[in-house]
Each structure stands twice: as C-alpha cells, then as structure tokens.
Design goal:
This protein has 8 helices and 12 strands. By secondary structure, it is of the alpha+beta class.
Length: 490
C-alpha cells in the first residue's frame, strides 16, 4: 500500500514538474503564432483568393440569381472605368454593413495567409476596386469603396482575432468539430484556408493554441432578453422584440507591452429576433490602432491612442403604429485619438474607468426625411464624432456604465439642380439631401450580479436627431428603447 502511494506521489510530482516546464521554459511552443511554419506569408495566394472570392460572388449573382447588374461585358467595364465614381442608392444594410463585411473577407484572405494587419489592409482596397469597376454594370460607388476598405479592415481584424479564441489544434472528436465550426462561422475565409491546408483536422502537440489569455485577457459575455422600441418617443406605443447581445473586451487598454493594432478592442453586437425588425440591430466596434501610456502611478493610469470606430444602428417602423422609422445611424469609416484613464479602487470596492474619443468620420449615414431613391432613404456624408464612456464598478454588487455619442455628419453633395423625373437614378450621384445632421445617443446601463457568472441587465438608449436641410424644412426627432435581460459572463 505504501508502495502504491509512493508511486502515485511520484507520478503527481512528475506531472506537476511537466506542467511547470510547459508554463515557463517551453511556454512559447504552445502558441501557433510562434510556429515557424505558420509564420510563413503567402501574398500571392491571398491575391488569388481575393480574385476568386469576387469571381465566385459574381457568378452566383449572374447565373444563380440572374441579377441584371451582374450581366457585365467588356463595354460595361470600359464604361465604368471611364465614367468614374458616383454615390449609389443601395439600401442601408447593403451599403453600411454588407459591404464592410465583404471587405472583411478580402482582408482575411491575407490575414489567414500569414500577412500582418498593415499588410492585409491593401487587399480590402484592391478587392473593392476590382468589384466596383468590373463585376457590376452599375457605375462604381465611392461610398462602397470607403465602406468596404475601412469598414472591412475593422470587421476583418475583429473576426480574425475572435476566431483565434476558439481554435485549438490539440483537440479531437466532437470538441474539435465544434471549435472548427465556430471558428469558420466567425471568420469564413480563415476556415476555408484551414480546410484547404488540412489544418482543420491536423492534431498538433506543439504550437496548437491560437491565443494567449495570460498575455491578452479577454472578457466575453452573452445576454438575452426583451427590448421595447418606442414609436415616435411614446411610452406605451411601441413594440417588444426579443434580442441576443454579444459583448467582448479584448486586451487591457493600460497594458504598455501590447501595442499592435487591435491588441485592445471592444465589441458589442445586438441581434433582433423579430421579423419586423432587422436581424442586425447594432454593432459597436472600437479598435486601438496605436497606443502609449502617458502616466502610471498609484493614483491614476492614463493611456493615449489612435482608435478606429465602426458603429451601426438599424431599425424599421414599429408594427401597427406610425410609419416613422426610429433610427438608421452609421459610422462606417472613422478614426481619431482617444484617452482612457482608470482610477484606483476606493475602499477596495468602487472602481472608475473613463474613455474619451474624438474622430474624423470619413463615411457616415443617417435617416433622411425626404430622400427616397431606389432603395435608399438615408443621407451619407462625412464629419466628426465625440464619445464619452464611463464605467463604475461596484465590486461584488455589479456595475453602472454611461455611454454617450455625438455625431455630426455633413451631406455635401445634394441633388437640388437635378430633375429626379428625368435623371437616371443610377447616375444621380448624390450623397442625399444637402445639409447636416446632429445625432446623439445616450446609453445608461446597470448590471446587477446574481452570482459569479450571471447578471441582471437593465439599460436604455435615447436617440436624438436634428437634421438641417439646405433646401427643405428642418426636422427634429427623438425616440428611445429599453432593454431588460440576463447576461452570462464567460
């Protein structure tokens, strides 16, 4: 009996020593990003995949969907190149979500072939240029180029890094299948390359992890509940929609060692589960391109950086009430400086973190009260945004946050000198109604801890729009929505 106990103790001792060895001396060999094989770059393969992606989408539109815009010829390509760019009239979700998502696929043809963030960015631009000039009969759209390129970079790096959280080449069986399926769902082009390369089923005992949680911590939560969307700012005249909400805080904004693009980002995605409202209700993505700590002390930590913003809010008219659409807001291409500071905990319980951002909006969008051409009922333009995020942590009780955003978007190119009855709408070439719009979004939230993982969530969003039109009557509009649900913190 003593011999058996001694043998068991020896096995446990060896196991502990092996674990210690892996977590200290050989720790780098755990992670795929340190693998010499996986660090090889294939820029030509990425270019072929970008071309193939466009060819595949075009072929589907042309031969499966039989879309007229996909019936291209040499003459249509020559015409598009000679004519140049216009502002198109596609619907809100197409221009300001679908195009950025398509750009993320271009970006990830490069990212999943070993190229860095900056090396992958030109692929979004090149893929968009190819599509705009050669894959459609319609003239090339300048708004599509901006949304696909810059929005694609933001969504591309976000999906690339999120897929790394679930991949693990040491797993087998059902767990491996689920990890590969989820990784492919998050980042399809990466999944396709893993299928082509055989990485999807290859089992590794070194270089098998794709994310280092000790170096870059990640907080991920999933919430669900019921949303009340007010009609025309009425307390009891709206509709209720179930929703799912996904949030991620990736990295530490005050960590001075991790300073690569998107080593820190926050993401908030809300999905509506109602046939009357868009599936994708909200996307808030903030990624740090570069940062530095400007002050570190026991009293306060302050970090300064350059941040990329991608924000998208979409809704439709409330069922069985007025025909007013509550909001359509986009900040598809936006970048600027920001500052994050954190105070030490007071009395070991109260903690405060504050974030302030200002950004140049290269492409934004907002609901229009007048413009309605083909599928477009919104104005596009450029301007600036200001944001202030405050988070107060009450320790074991929960936390309170207040997020305030202010956007000012200027529509420079109107249609006041054109006859809409005789002008081909494909060549109207207008950003919308000339003027500017001020948009304010105020979002307070309270999260109450029910246990270590589950929180009760109460939040509201207040939307204010003041649209100034150069040739039409100005319009002011405001409305709100409330949410009540549960959050599971992973």
């Amino acid at each position: 009996m003593k011999f058996k106990l001694s043998l068991l103790s020896l096995i446990l001792f060896i196991s502990c020593n092996n674990t210690y060895s892996l977590t200290t001396e050989n720790r780098d060999s755990l992670f795929a990003f340190n693998s010499p094989e996986m660090n090889k770059k294939y820029p030509f393969k990425a270019a072929v995949e970008t071309f193939g992606l466009n060819l595949g989408v075009w072929a589907f539109d042309r031969y499966v969907m039989n879309e007229n815009f996909a019936k291209i010829t040499i003459n249509t390509i020559r015409h598009n190149i000679n004519y140049g760019f216009v502002w198109d009239n596609d619907q809100f979700s197409t221009n300001l979500f679908a195009h950025p998502y398509h750009g993320s696929l271009y970006f990830n043809t490069a990212r999943s072939n070993g190229l860095s963030f900056w090396e992958s960015a030109p692929y979004s631009l090149a893929g968009s240029l190819m599509w705009e000039f050669t894959a459609e009969r319609e003239p090339a759209a300048i708004n599509d180029l901006m949304a696909t390129t810059l929005g694609g970079i933001a969504l591309g790096e976000f999906t690339h890094r999120m897929s790394s959280l679930v991949l693990n080449d040491s797993k087998r069986g059902g767990e491996r299948f689920l990890r590969e399926f989820l990784g492919t769902l998050i980042c399809p082009i990466r999944g396709l390359n893993r299928l082509i390369n055989g990485d999807m089923w290859r089992v590794r005992h070194s270089y098998y992890k794709y994310h280092d949680y000790e170096k870059i911590p990640v907080k991920f939560s999933m919430g669900f509940g019921m949303r009340y969307l007010a009609d025309d700012n009425h307390m009891f005249k709206g509709e209720y929609n179930p929703y799912i909400n996904l949030k991620a805080v990736y990295g530490d904004p005050l960590d001075k060692e991790d300073n690569s693009p998107y080593d820190y980002f926050t993401a908030n995605v809300s999905l509506g589960l109602s046939l009357n409202q868009p599936l994708i209700n909200k996307i808030n993505l903030l990624g740090r391109i570069w940062g530095t700590n400007v002050k570190e002390s026991s009293e306060m930590n302050i970090s300064f950086g350059i941040f990329q913003h991608f924000n998208y809010y979409d809704s439709e008219a409330v069922l069985h009430n007025s025909e007013n659409i509550p909001y359509k807001i986009s900040e598809a291409a936006s970048v600027g400086p920001g500052m994050i500071y954190k105070l030490p905990r007071y009395n070991s319980m109260l903690g405060l973190q504050q974030s302030i951002y200002i950004s140049a909006v290269l492409l934004g969008g907002s609901l229009s009260d007048y413009y309605n051409v083909i599928d477009r009922n919104y104005n596009m333009g450029s301007g600036y945004s200001l944001k202030n995020d405050t988070d107060i942590d009450f320790g074991r009780y929960g936390n309170f946050s207040l997020n305030v955003s202010l956007l000012n978007i200027f529509t420079w190119k109107g249609y006041e000198n054109k006859d809409l009855n005789t002008t081909n709408p494909l060549y109207l070439n207008a950003q919308g109604d000339k003027g500017n719009v001020m948009l304010a979004i105020i979002n307070p939230q309270i999260n109450l801890n029910l246990n270590n993982n589950i929180k009760a969530n109460i939040e509201a969003s207040y939307f204010v729009r003041k649209s100034h039109y150069s040739y039409k009557e100005d319009v002011s509009y405001k409305t709100f929505e409330t949410r009540l649900g549960l959050i599971y913190q992973f």
